[in-house]
Structure formats: C-alpha cells, structure tokens
Design a protein that fits this description.
Elements (H helix, E strand, L loop, with lengths): L57 E3 L6 E5 L4 E4 L5 E6 L2 E8 L8 E3 L5 E4 L8 E9 L5 E10 L6 E6 L6 E2 L5 E6 L4 H8 L2 E6 L4 E5 L5 E6 L8 E6 L5 E3 L2 E3 L3 E7 L3 E6 L4 E6 L2 E7 L10 E6 L2 E9 L1 H4 L5 E9 L6 E4 L17 E3 L1 H10 L5 E5 L3 E2 L13 H5 L12
Parallel strand pairs: 3-9, 10-18, 11-19, 20-28, 23-29, 26-27
Antiparallel strand pairs: 1-9, 2-4, 4-7, 5-8, 6-7, 8-9, 10-12, 12-15, 13-16, 14-15, 16-19, 17-18, 20-21, 21-22, 23-28, 24-25, 25-26
Length: 420
Amino acid sequence: MVGMRRSLVMVVAAVVLAPLALAGCGDKKSGGTAAWAEPGADASASAGAAPGASQGPVTESADVPINLTVTPAVGKKDVPVSSEVGFTVSGGKVTTVSLTDAAGKAVAGALRADGSSWVPAATLKAKTTYAASVTATTDSGLTKTATTTFTTMGAVGKKTGTGLYLFDDHTYGVGMPVVVEFNPGIKKADRAAVEKRMFVETTPSQLGVWSWTSSGTQAYYRSKEYWQTGTTLKVRIAVGGLPTGGGRYGDRDRAATAKIGRDFRMTVDNATKKMVVTQDGKVVRTALVSLGRKSKPSVSGTMVVMDKLASTVFDTTDTDGAAGYKTKIEYAQRITWSGQYVHSAPWSVGAQGHTNVSHGCVNVSPSNAQWLFDKTLIGDPVVVKGTGDKLAYGDGWTAWNVSWAEFVKGSALPVPDSLK
C-alpha cells in the first residue's frame, strides 16, 4: 500500500529512546532535538531499488512465459546501503527472494506488503558485495529465476539526523501520533522516497497515513480516528544510508514497538474556565482552570501530552529580559513546543474558574495537577477551546489538529480514495 500503512510481510522492531527538551510557559523550544539509544536488529523495509534494471543470469524449469528482471543491476557498484532487491515480473508472481553477502551468509528480509520488492532486515554493510536470487512462479507451478550481484558504497560524508519519538515497550495515550524528526528537514522533492521507507504496522489493523510539516523537519503518522485502546504500534523508520537529498544520507534505521492504553482525554473550555476529564467515555473529573491572559493567550486546538516533569523551573529571563520570570513549577505536562503546559499553579487558585492570568499555560490547583499527573500518559489528547490564539501546525505533535481531509494532503505519496 502506497503512502499509508507500509508494512512488510514480517517486521521486527527495536528500542528507540527520545527524551524531550524543556522550555517554560512563553518560551520557544529551539529545535525539538532528541537523544537516542542503539537499537537492536530490525527486520523491516526499504523503498525503490537502485536504478538501472538489468537481467541477470536466468534459469527456467521449462519454456515459461515469465518475464523477470532484478535490480540493482548486475555488477553495479556504489549502491546505497539502504537498497533492497527490486524486480519487475509478468506472467507469474515472485515467490522466493534470497540475498547473501560476500561470505555466503544469508541476509534476513521480507517482501513488501504490496509485493513490489524485497527489503533487507537491516541496513546493508558498506563496501560489501551481495548476491541476490529471485524466483517467480506461474499458477501452474513453473518457475523462472534471475540473479544479480552488486557492491555497496563506502562511508558517506553528510548525513541527515533522524529521531523517532517512541519508546520501545512503553504505553501511550490514544492520541499519540508516530512522530519522526529530520535534521535538516527533507525537501518536498525528496519526501516521497523517504516516506516509502517509513513503516507502521498496527494490531488490530487501523490504516493510516503519513503527513509532513511544511518545513519537512517532522512527519506524523495517524489513523482517521484516535487509536483503539490496546493497539500495538510496530514502527520502523528504515532510512539508514538512504539518499535524502542535497548529497545527504539518513544516519541510521530507527524502530520501536509500543502499546496504546486506555482512552483518557482532557477538554478545556475558556468560556467556562473548566477542564472536563473523561476516561473511556465517562467523566471522571472536572477541574477549574486559569488560561493565558489577554497579552499572552493560550492556544486553542487539539494537542497531546508530550512530556511530564514532576518538578522543574520555568525561566523566561533569557527571552523576556527584565519582564521575564523564573519560577519553580510542579506537575508540568508539556503540550506545545512553544512552551505551553498544564501545570500546578497555587498562586492562581483564586482566579481559576473565573479569570485568565497565566502566561499561556493551563493553570490548575495543586491537587488537580497531581491527580492529572498521576493519571496521564504521553499521547493523551488535550483539547483547548475558545481562546484568543490558534495552535500552529507543528507547534507540538499537532497531527490531530487538522481534519482528516487536510491531514492526508500532507502525504508525499498518493493516497488511495478509500483512505481519503
């Protein structure tokens, strides 16, 4: 399937860690960078094979009406380590693909779900010669086999940094999009090739689509509705060694397998100055709030919890100078990159439910803040309504802040009508 749930026949995911940076209310986040742990073995996917299709040595079991060509071309050198075994076939269907390295060791991999190519389970080794064999079979059982050999390129100079905001074996809220980060951003002309290499498998199946921010620094994957409780997300961002434009190559593959937990949502209404909290469709708490004052309004939109800090310090003196402040904050939950949080604000309890006095954050009482902090997961939706400012796309994990029809427009690949 092109442009949406690009999974493989077999996928094995690995650990990827992504701690978040911090900014206070009113602060701007300077990049959204993340640190990463080494992943384990990935069995996953790649996209389009190297150009220059060529017919390698062919063996047939009979006079079979099968046309079969394989890529990379025979003897091709300097092949990206992201390459997969591509093929074109007519008169039959590919039934067997094998790949071995120079020592004859078999390389694990799997066919794409649409059967268009075979993807190595992990990035290939640099400066290594590989041999591939592809067999196609007719309905009557006759076969044709084509082979090729190719050599991968050496170490690359310029790389595109990547990040996956998903932890292996963690549980997230129903609004958690799959978030991938690129530094520098991917230009429009190069996004389709990169998107083909980003795979998501959901159990139970919930088809989704990738959508890019305008800068190309982030791509989000979501389904039409929030994830179902109990969903498993299995993700591989198979861009290690992939040409990403401008002479750069993806720094490495990243993968994670995570779970979706209970359906927990927070809805804040400026008109009532209240937050209504639901779990699995039932109201479980109502909390009074104070939002951003007129000069520093809170943003309206659909956000998700991105980070949780039991105790931190908001410091805006670097950006606001003498007008800034430095304050210890408890039970802070980030919802935008630009510095808006849900947090404890004992100094504004008297205003909560009546007047907006914050610098843009959602102020709640200490008891409500602690209760929320103990209940929430990263990825729980937070909807704010009726304020004087609108959430900007990309200011946080904003995949749910646009309609589905608008979201799919951000895909770099064609989206079937069935998913629009």
